[in-house]
Design a protein that fits this description.
The protein is of the alpha/beta class. It folds into 3 domains: 50 residues, no CATH class; 135 residues, Leucine Dehydrogenase, chain A, domain 1 (Rossmann fold, 3-Layer(aba) Sandwich); 163 residues, Rossmann fold, CATH 3.40.50.720. The chain is built from 17 helices and 12 strands. The strands form 2 sheets. A 7-stranded mixed beta sheet has the order 9-8-7-6-10-11-12, with helices on both faces. A 5-stranded mixed beta sheet has the order 1-2-4-3-5, sandwiched between helices. α2 runs parallel beside α5, α5 packs across α17 and α16 packs across α17. The structure holds NADPH dihydro-nicotinamide-adenine-dinucleotide phosphate and (2Z)-2-iminopentanedioic acid.
């Protein structure tokens, strides 16, 4: 808990106002604990209600999403967009389609997105949205009808200068394509910069699909290099998830000389001591939209285990949780530490529970928090917006080089802020403080709005 009475009061207020939003409370508490290091030096925050404004979304939109399945049955899902903070740029952040989606999850994601987007150094505010729609087992035509219905309502609330959604869990190139088509039809204008993660033929950026996973590895590599004079070369890596972030984290870690021995989906995990054959994973997940279990049937020497948490009992040097929030708890952290893990890089948003983070920090494990380590995806989304504005496109190498430089800069900004807060190497504090200072300065400059 925070020492500052001001921060305690703000935290008590959000818990009282939004009881039951446990993921949101968790994300806010971590940030306020970090701000405890600086808030006394900035009396202007309290005088101007900056932290109260910072934790309260500028706008929350919820709406009905009716759609018809292939048998003619009508389903009604709930759609959301949390427009959290636009002090430094238009709201920016992904859309998540998953049955677990609720306001608490989207508020935690939108809140973290403000700080993440600030860390990228690019002019983007924070937002998040999605639906409790489950794309699993749906036909392409069903997904298309859902996306069209979702965008029919969302289109009133977004725009290239207002709010720019992208992908997240359950939303990839297919969904972005259907949503862009519907937006273009409704608006009768080609507004490429309204969504990012688009296909290459209609305004997408090269390297955006790879960006989150690659960026995670660039950040982790810089952290290993600067804090332990080490690298990915020769290391054993465990990656949870088998989606967009996990697949490209595997690709980059492998190209940096590591061996990735385990991955998972929400049903279970595979262990391949010889190093995972990523072509097989891509075929199962990206081409066939199948289950990871199939890997063990196709690759001799590998095994499949039902259930996810056991993945963290596999010995590794580097762990990259890339599936979902709170997937790595205190017990899993202890297992990783007992097996000698040296670094953890968060590809997913808030994948480690607070007790897991504490355990890693107390054990001296290098810890790269999500809002810094996975910022490469949204940073490259902002580069997609730049290319759309210029009506131009950069080569893969140009985008990748910018992404690499952005991740290196984020590491150093977070590290330097941790030193200024007298907690050198605590990148949780460093990322929260560095991300916050820019947003707070922009909010102060713009008055009480
Ligand atoms: P995808 O939908 O492509 O993949 C998600 C993966 O995580 C799947 O393998 C999925 O398994 C697994 N997963 C999802 N929910 C659970 C669960 N409850 N338990 C176990 N496994 C689960 O999503 P992304 O790769 O895009 O996103 C992964 C994480 O990265 C999320 O936390 C997201 O917020 C974060 N992120 C994404 C960015 C992006 O650009 N896409 C940018 C920054 C962060 P299954 O298929 O069985 O559901
Ligand atoms: O969590 C995230 O940063 C994302 N899902 C990417 C958001 C974006 O706008 O590219």
């Amino acid at each position: 808990m925070m020492k500052s009475e001001y921060l305690q009061r703000v935290y008590s207020q959000i818990v009282a106002r939004d009881p039951g939003e446990k993921e949101f409370h968790q994300a806010v508490l971590e940030v306020l604990e970090s701000l405890d290091m600086i808030v006394d030096k900035h009396p202007e925050y309290e005088a101007n209600g900056i932290i109260e404004s910072f934790v309260e979304p500028e706008r929350v939109i919820t709406f009905r999403v009716p759609w018809t399945d292939d048998n003619g049955r009508v389903h009604v899902n709930r759609g959301y967009r949390v427009q959290y903070n636009s002090a430094i740029g238009p709201y920016k952040g992904g859309l998540r389609f998953h049955p677990s989606v609720n306001l608490s999850i989207l508020k935690f994601l939108g809140f973290e997105q403000i700080l993440k987007n600030s860390l990228t150094s690019l002019p983007i505010g924070g937002g998040k949205g999605g639906s409790d729609f489950d794309p699993k087992g749906k036909s392409d035509a069903e997904v298309m009808r859902f996306c069209q219905s979702f965008m029919t309502e969302l289109s009133r609330h977004i725009g290239q200068f207002l709010d720019v959604p992208a992908g997240d869990i359950g939303v990839g190139a297919r969904e972005i394509g259907y949503m862009f088509g519907q937006y273009r039809r409704i608006k009768n204008q080609y507004e490429a910069g309204v969504l990012t993660g688009k296909g290459l033929t209609y305004g997408g950026s090269l390297a955006r699909p790879q960006a989150t996973g690659y960026g995670l590895c660039y950040f982790t590599q810089e952290m290993l290099n600067c804090m332990k004079n080490d690298s990915f070369a020769g290391k054993t890596v465990v990656i949870s998830g088998a989606g967009n972030v996990a697949i490209y984290a595997n690709e980059k870690a492998t190209s940096l000389g590591a061996k990735v021995v385990a991955m998972c989906d929400s049903n279970g995990y595979i262990h391949d001591p010889n190093g995972i054959n990523l072509d097989v994973i891509k075929d199962i997940k990206l081409v066939k939209r199948g289950r990871i279990k199939e890997y063990a049937e196709r690759v001799p020497g590998s095994t499949y285990t039902e259930g996810c948490s056991g993945i963290w009992t596999i010995p590794c040097d580097i762990a990259l949780p890339c599936a979902t929030q709170n997937e790595l708890n205190g017990e899993s952290a202890k297992a990783l530490i007992a097996n000698g893990v040296m670094a953890v890089g968060e590809g997913a948003n808030m994948p480690s529970t607070p007790d897991a983070v504490k355990a890693f920090q107390e054990a001296g494990v290098l810890f790269a928090p999500a809002k810094a380590a996975n910022a490469g995806g949204v940073a490259t989304s902002a580069l997609e917006m730049s290319q759309n504005s210029m009506r131009y496109s950069w080569t893969f190498e140009e985008v990748d080089a910018k992404l690499h430089q952005i991740m290196v800069n984020i590491f150093h900004n977070a590290y330097d802020a941790s030193v200024e807060c007298e907690q050198p190497g605590n990148l949780v504090v460093g990322a929260n403080v560095a991300g916050f200072l820019k947003v707070a300065t922009a909010m102060l400059a713009q008055g009480v709005i």
